[in-house]
Amino acid sequence: MTDASPHWDDLRIFLALARAESLSTAGHVLKKDPATISRRMQRLEQNLGVRLFNRSPQGYLLTEPGQRLLQHADAMEQSFINAEQAVADSPDQLRGSIRIGAPDGCASFLLPQVVEQICQDNPELEVQIVSLPRIFNLSKREADMAIAVSRPQTGRLIVQPLTDYQLSIAVAKTWIAKHGEPLSLEDLKPHRFVGYIPDMIFDSELDYLSEIGINPPRLSSNSVVVQLNWARQGAGPAIVHDFALPFAPELMPVLRQEISLQRTFYLIRHVDDRQVNRLNRFARLLTEGVRAEAARLAKQVAQAYPLEP
């Protein structure tokens, strides 16, 4: 390698900037001053004799040579990851850090107890759960794996069904005391519903109210946890994950025989990670745990609110 050839540290900075498209965001990820990152990329471009980024007020976007370098830098990064795992891996224990991206309903009501059990069995493992109401970009390494409510159609990804789950209309018991228990969906339509902000629904699978013929909600949030807590306060009916109901005793599902929505969570990983044994083992434990926990909570709901024959 000549002095003009890029070293791994240069490529690591290049990768961070290519994924973040922002000096400040890349600096936060790398814990480096943005001015330092800018100088290092200018030096890398001078050494290679090409422009890697188009700089604009919108950020740093890759040029065609930058896109070509990105493919090789990604491959080098994956080789380093594989080498680290080969050295650090243990047949008995999972170690290191794993980041999972998930929608907030799953992140709040399923993952904590599942991940806690995995970590009890693997005390040297560190897990980060990132709860965001959007789709994660694994190509930009925002997470090691992600959970989504629909199967992605593009990208170099490994996708597997994680678990099916049900959603029901739920209202607070105080709401029922005030308005009475509804006997049909028509009984609910005049009332104020709680739901997603329509223009912030990032996946059509989340457009529950439109599916059951309800107009846009008068109380809305991009967070399912906020919606749940609104409903708990008696604000109005909401579509609630059945697996969240055991955590909200103030709520009860209604019209379960008339309205019951089924969805599926998918576990998504980058295709390059299929050779990383540690991530394979964690994905298997996560899948087993989420399925078991979803079934346990569904059983609780079925016992508490049995369907009439």
UniProtKB/TrEMBL annotation:
<dbReference type="Pfam" id="PF00126">
    <property type="entry name" value="HTH_1"/>
</dbReference>
<comment type="similarity">
    <text>Belongs to the LysR transcriptional regulatory family.</text>
</comment>
<dbReference type="InterPro" id="IPR036388">
    <property type="entry name" value="WH-like_DNA-bd_sf"/>
</dbReference>
<dbReference type="InterPro" id="IPR005119">
    <property type="entry name" value="LysR_subst-bd"/>
</dbReference>
<dbReference type="GO" id="GO:0006351">
    <property type="term" value="P:DNA-templated transcription"/>
</dbReference>
<keyword id="KW-0238">DNA-binding</keyword>
<feature type="domain" description="HTH lysR-type">
    <location>
        <begin position="6"/>
        <end position="63"/>
    </location>
</feature>
<dbReference type="InterPro" id="IPR000847">
    <property type="entry name" value="LysR_HTH_N"/>
</dbReference>
<dbReference type="GO" id="GO:0043565">
    <property type="term" value="F:sequence-specific DNA binding"/>
</dbReference>
<dbReference type="GO" id="GO:0003700">
    <property type="term" value="F:DNA-binding transcription factor activity"/>
</dbReference>
<dbReference type="Pfam" id="PF03466">
    <property type="entry name" value="LysR_substrate"/>
</dbReference>
<dbReference type="InterPro" id="IPR058163">
    <property type="entry name" value="LysR-type_TF_proteobact-type"/>
</dbReference>
<dbReference type="InterPro" id="IPR036390">
    <property type="entry name" value="WH_DNA-bd_sf"/>
</dbReference>
<protein>
    <submittedName>
        <fullName>LysR family transcriptional regulator</fullName>
    </submittedName>
</protein>
<keyword id="KW-0804">Transcription</keyword>
<keyword id="KW-0805">Transcription regulation</keyword>
